[in-house]
Model the fold of this input.
Amino acid sequence: MSAPKYDEDFKKSIVALYQAGKSQSQLSKEYGVSLSAVSRWVKQYSEVKLDDDSVISAQQIKELQKRNAILEEENLILKKAIAIFTPHSQKD
Done:
């Protein structure tokens, strides 16, 4: 028997109720969802309000962190390539 599938709107609704003050255990009991699922959804869909009043979700932050790590790695590779292919000064 597989776990029931919940759509994204349902998950976001549960997170909104949590952010409005309901506990994760209350939501689990009330909606028949496992506590671990509620906890995972809260981590995934919780939103953070930024200084410019824009809102970003935990999932978007995770994606940005992953993209940032890739860019940092590419940057490091390019710096090493420049060091290898740039001729050294003849004044050494």
Notes: The radius of gyration is 23 Å. The beta strands are 47-49, 55-57. The first helix runs from residue 8 to 19.
